[in-house]
Amino acid sequence: xxxxxxxxxxxxxxEVGHDxxxxxxxxxxxxxxxxxxxxxxxxxxLAVGVTGWFLTDAGSHGAPRDGLRSGALAWLMAHGSGVRxxxxxxxxxxxxxxxxxxxxxxxxAYRLGDSVSGHGPDADRIADGERDWTVPxxxxxxxxxxxxVGVVTESLAATPETRPALAHVVLWSVLMCGxxxxxxxxxxSGRAAIWGSFLPSTLLASGAACRSVLTTxxxxxxxxxxxxxVLDTGTALNLVSQLGTNGPATVLLALVSxxxxxxxxxxxxxxxxxxxFAVGVGTxxxxxxxxxxxxxxxxxxxxxxxxGPTPAWTAWLVLVPPVVAGIGVARAxxxxxxxxxxxxxxxxxxxxxxxxxxxxxxxSLAGGRVGPGRxxxxxxxxxxxLLHAVTAFGIGGLIGGLAITWWQRRGAEPAAEADL
Length: 420
Prior knowledge:
Layout: H1 13-21, H2 26-57, H3 64-77, E1 83-85, E2 88-90, H4 95-115, H5 123-127, H6 134-157, H7 166-189, H8 191-196, H9 201-231, H10 233-243, H11 247-259, H12 261-273, E3 278-279, E4 284-285, E5 290-291, H13 320-335, H14 341-363, E6 378-379, H15 382-419
Antiparallel strand pairs: 1-2, 3-6, 4-5
C-alpha cells in the first residue's frame, strides 16, 4: 500500500506525486465514481435506443426522445424495475445489460479503490486490529452516486403508461454496489489482500472451487444453448422471415437476442440439471418432459426441443452436472494443491454446493413476465433448481476433489523418493 512509503521529506518528487495520486478526496471521488459507473452504461443504452428508433422506421414516426426513453427504460429494466407495455407488465430482466452494468461497476470501483488506497491506516496498523473505514465510506458514497443516477433516470423516463418500479431500481443498485462495488474497492485499495490473509485456508480453497465450478458450468450451458440454436438455424431464420423485418430492424432484433442470451444460458443450465423451465403457464421444458403450446415469434425460441416424448439419450444428461463440477474442482485444486484426502473432499464438496446455491440465485433473475395470458410465467423454478444443483455439484465436487488429490499425491511420491 502507498501508506507504507517513507516520510515525504525523504522521498523524490515522483514518489510524492505517486502518493498524492492515491490520497485524492475520498468522499468526492467515491460519489463521482458511482455517478460515472451508472452513467456510462446509461449513455450506451440511450445511444442504442436512439439508433434503434431511427433504424425501425428511419425516424418517420415519433421523435428522438422516444428512442432515449426506450434506452432509459431498458437500463431501468436491467436493474429490476419492470415496465408496462400497452398495459401489460413485463418483469424479465435483460441480463446482457445487467452483466455489462456489473462489469462497469467492478472496474470503476476497483479504480476508485486504487485512487483512495493512501487513506486510512497502513498495512501494519490494519494487521494490528486498527479500524479502517476507508472501504466502507468509499462504498457508501459510491452507492449514493449510483442511486442518484437511477432515481433521476426513473423520474425523467417514467410515464403513467410504463410505470417502472423505482424501489426495485434502488434495491438492485444497493445489491450491485454492495456485492460487486465494495469488494472491488477493497481489492483495488489493497485491503482485500490484507483481510484475506486472516481467512482460513479452507474457506479460500472452497471459494476458489465454487468460482471454478460455476464458471465452468456457465460455459458448458452456453455451449449447449449455441449448439441447440445452430441445429435449428432453419427454424430461427423462418421465424425471422415471419416477422417481416427489414435489414436494420433485423440487426436490432439480433441485438435484443444478444442482450437476452444470458437469460437463455441460465435456462439451459436449469434444463441440464433436470428441473428445466417454463415458457408459459402449464408448460415445461426438461430432459424428462417437453410440453409447450403456442409461443411468440422470437428466433431464440428455435432452440427449444419439440413438444412431445423426449429421446432416450436425454436421460444421460443427468451425468453432465456432476462431471462438470468435478472438472471445475480439479481445475481449482491444481492452483491450490493439497495432499490430504479429507481436505480435497471438503474443498470439492463445499465448493460444489456453494456453486449450486450461486447458480440457483442467478436463475431467479432469468425469468419473469414477458407478456399477457400464458406468458406471465416464464423461467426456471428456483427451489427445484437449487435442490438439483446443490446435490449434483456437491457430489461431483466431492468426487473431483478426491480424484485430483489422488493424482497430486501420486505425482508427489516420486519427488519424495528422489529426495531420499
